[in-house]
């Protein structure tokens, strides 16, 4: 095969038999900043659950069950401040990840509140994943192509959250186990490795017990059998795969798992029409991330139009580059890349129901990076060399810098979130915390879990009225009443806010929500989203058991007002 790398030295390096070991060392090197990332967001929920300190606590093996069954139970959690006042009573967020939950419980039993041990454990899974990818590539790709694709995978900036965020470790665990199973199945099919007959289904089953992301590996398995093999009997040979998937679906539904009535999560089984519409919108966003490194996480803060346009242009341009190099490939390479592309596309679609972010590309990138490596190796025309050079710069030179920066930023964000929760202006007498304007959606939800996890002896109930990133005006309208107004926008616009309520569930002026110690009335609304709230507390604002807070100067500070006085809170 004519590899045509930029220089002979690079070609010799990428073809060296020990190149995968170098990739493994690079993967370790780029992951080291995650050791200082600490705990972040859902990690504190898990810590609170394991200490039985939340208002409601799932079992240690079911830590990704965020809501109990039944509207009456969800309403109770809302009333007691575990979930925001706008959460719909039909909300269901329950993910089947018993194996990953068990690993988190093991970490807690071993390391307690010391995050370093959790992150060392996560890095072990990250290195195991790079090793599993190396094994799969070795079986299906020519050496130089497989080695280059492995290098791009080890440096891919989309992997920052799975490496640095403990709660996102489920992606790594599910990918490792299912890929090892898939690799065993391919070896069985290609080389007669008889143990692969049962190791394949076993690995996939264990991967699915760790994360629904393992469904992406099942997509590669299906594409391999139906597009990568030419002999008859595809259906018969796919029966073990279908048996595992059918069993998983039965268990998943029997346990009530899935996401329902959430504006951020879309369950394809519960709402296929909405899922299809969501997938069509998100695929170009994924393409912009996977091909050009434009983080999908930014899609929630940037105008969707330009991001979608960049994604579509990236898809068209990359398709043109791939078409130009296609004649240079032999028939086996074409067949392999065809089923890899199909598996990557199917696995990407299967992940599009989650909260949009680069981390969802972990398994789809297995095929995407093989295609990118192909263009880099075979770009021979002037335009092809330019495209290959751009892809090499984005994925081999810039990606590791973005990866490390992403982990460092997560650590900084985690530290800031925990510090803000810990320094909130509360007193020992505080029993109810009312955050008028959190400004940051993370501060609207996680401080109560942070304090419950770090201070089991304390149990304040937290209620956040607004998480909008905008100026607010708060006016005291009586001894125990307030009006809160947001300027220039509405409430419930961020991804985290929409996680608790679908946009179709609109608000009208006069709608009332009752929580413990407080009544919240929608005073004004725009397009079904509140813009002003009237708040009536059961006790005067000066009650020592209640703390009125707002995000001011980067901290949660107390708000004190005389009747008729107005305070403007700015980000």
Automatic annotation (TrEMBL):
Lineage start: Bacteria, Pseudomonadati, Myxococcota, Myxococcia, Myxococcales
Residues of the signal peptide: none
Domain of life from the UniProt record: Bacteria
Transmembrane stretches, start-end: 116-137, 144-165, 200-223, 235-255, 306-325, 337-356, 362-381, 388-409
Protein known as: Glycosyltransferase RgtA/B/C/D-like domain-containing protein
UniProt key word Transport: no
Entry keyword annotation includes Membrane: yes
Keywords, sorted A to Z: Membrane, Transmembrane, Transmembrane helix
């Amino acid at each position: 095969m004519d590899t045509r790398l930029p220089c002979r030295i690079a070609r010799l390096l990428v073809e060296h038999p020990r190149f995968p070991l170098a990739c493994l060392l690079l993967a370790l090197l780029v992951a080291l900043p995650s050791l200082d990332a600490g705990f972040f967001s859902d990690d504190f929920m898990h810590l609170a659950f394991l200490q039985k300190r939340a208002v409601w606590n799932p079992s240690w093996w079911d830590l990704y069950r965020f809501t109990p069954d039944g509207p009456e139970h969800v309403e109770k959690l809302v009333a007691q401040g575990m979930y925001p006042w706008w959460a719909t009573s039909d909300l269901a967020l329950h993910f089947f990840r018993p194996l990953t939950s068990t690993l988190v419980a093991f970490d807690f039993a071993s390391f307690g509140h010391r995050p370093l041990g959790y992150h060392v454990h996560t890095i072990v899974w990250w290195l195991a994943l790079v090793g599993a990818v190396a094994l799969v590539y070795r079986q299906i790709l020519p050496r130089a192509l497989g080695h280059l694709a492995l290098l791009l995978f080890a440096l891919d900036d989309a992997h920052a959250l799975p490496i640095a965020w403990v709660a996102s470790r489920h992606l790594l665990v599910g990918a490792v186990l299912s890929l090892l199973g898939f690799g065993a199945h391919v070896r069985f099919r290609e080389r007669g490795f008889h143990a692969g007959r049962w190791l394949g289904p076993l690995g996939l089953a264990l991967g699915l017990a760790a994360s629904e992301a393992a469904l992406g590996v099942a997509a590669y398995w299906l594409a391999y059998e139906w597009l990568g093999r030419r002999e008859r009997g595809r259906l018969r040979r796919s029966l073990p795969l279908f048996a595992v998937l059918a069993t998983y679906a039965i268990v998943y539904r029997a346990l009530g798992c899935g996401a329902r009535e959430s504006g951020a999560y879309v369950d394809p089984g519960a709402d296929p029409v909405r899922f299809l519409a969501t997938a069509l919108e998100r695929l170009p966003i994924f393409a912009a991330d996977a091909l050009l490194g434009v983080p999908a996480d930014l899609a929630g803060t940037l105008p969707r139009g330009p991001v979608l346009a960049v994604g579509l242009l990236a898809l068209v341009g990359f398709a043109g580059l791939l078409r130009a190099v296609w004649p240079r490939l032999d028939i086996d390479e074409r067949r392999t890349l065809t089923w890899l592309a199909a598996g990557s596309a199917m696995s990407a679609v299967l992940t599009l129901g989650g909260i949009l972010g680069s981390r969802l590309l972990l398994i789809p990138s297995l095929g995407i990076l093989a295609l990118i490596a192909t263009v880099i190796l075979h770009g021979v025309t002037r335009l092809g060399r330019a495209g290959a050079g751009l892809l090499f710069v984005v994925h081999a030179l810039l990606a590791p810098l973005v990866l490390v920066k992403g982990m460092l930023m997560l650590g900084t964000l985690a530290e800031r979130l925990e510090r803000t929760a810990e320094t909130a202006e509360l007193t020992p007498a505080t029993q109810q915390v009312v955050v008028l304007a959190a400004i940051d959606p993370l501060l609207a939800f996680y401080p109560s879990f942070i304090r419950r996890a770090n201070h089991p002896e304390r149990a304040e109930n937290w209620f956040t009225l607004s998480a909008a990133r905008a100026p607010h005006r708060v006016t005291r309208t009586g001894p125990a009443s307030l009006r809160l107004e947001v300027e220039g926008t509405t409430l419930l616009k961020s991804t985290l806010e929409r996680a608790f309520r679908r946009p179709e569930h609109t608000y009208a002026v006069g709608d009332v929500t009752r929580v413990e110690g407080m009544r919240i009335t929608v005073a004004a609304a725009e397009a079904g989203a509140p813009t002003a709230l009237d708040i009536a507390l059961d006790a005067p604002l000066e009650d020592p058991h209640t703390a009125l807070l707002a995000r001011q100067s980067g901290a949660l500070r107390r708000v004190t007002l005389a009747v008729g006085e107005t305070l403007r809170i700015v980000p």
